[in-house]
Amino acid sequence: MLAHPRLVKFVAFVMIVSLLFGSAAPVARAQEGSGGSIYLPVIADGRATGEITPPSPTDVNLFRTRVTVSTPAQWAELARTGALVLARGDDWALVLADDAQLADLARWHFTPQETNSLAALVKVA
């Protein structure tokens, strides 16, 4: 009876020690030369205090996709997403959308089809 509680305490101690020391090594190696500290950018008043680099055109995720639009309410929702309508038919639209807008289109059952990234279209052209 006495060995069982000691065994439980020993196993718990070994698990806690392994969790503490097992997770400390990757954090210390996260940024070499920084003394083990993790760098987080300093933000003051909504602006970063360091140098800000604008995104390059290849960093922006834009997609051309064809969506199904069947009702006037869906046309209004499509306009509300902010996606740029490139061409329009009776029950479809060809739109240019970023990744968040594309996710919204799929979530709102617009059924995106024939989706191509803008970078891939530029390479082909």
Name the descriptors:
about 120 residues, alpha+beta, four-stranded antiparallel beta sheet, two-stranded antiparallel sheet, 4 helices, 6 strands
Structural class: alpha+beta
What is the percent of helical residues?
40-55%
Anisotropy-based shape: elongated
The beta-strand count equals 6
Residue windows where pLDDT falls under 50 for at least 5 positions: none
Strand order of the largest sheet: 4-5-3-6
| Mean pLDDT over the full residue set | 75
Instruction: Round the Cα radius of gyration to an integer and report it.
Output: 26 Å
Largest sheet: 4 strands, antiparallel
Number of helices: 4
N-to-C series of helices and strands:
HEEEHEEHEH
Task: Itemize the secondary structure elements and their pairings.
Layout (H helix, E strand, L loop, with lengths): L2 H26 L14 E2 L2 E2 L13 E7 L3 H10 L2 E5 L3 E7 H9 L5 E5 H7 L1
Task: Explain what the structure shows.
With 125 residues, this protein is α+β, with helices and mostly antiparallel strands. The protein is 42% helix and 22% strand. The strands form 2 sheets. A 4-stranded antiparallel β-sheet has the order 4-5-3-6. It starts with a helix and ends with a helix.
Summarize the structure.
By secondary structure, the chain is of the alpha+beta class.
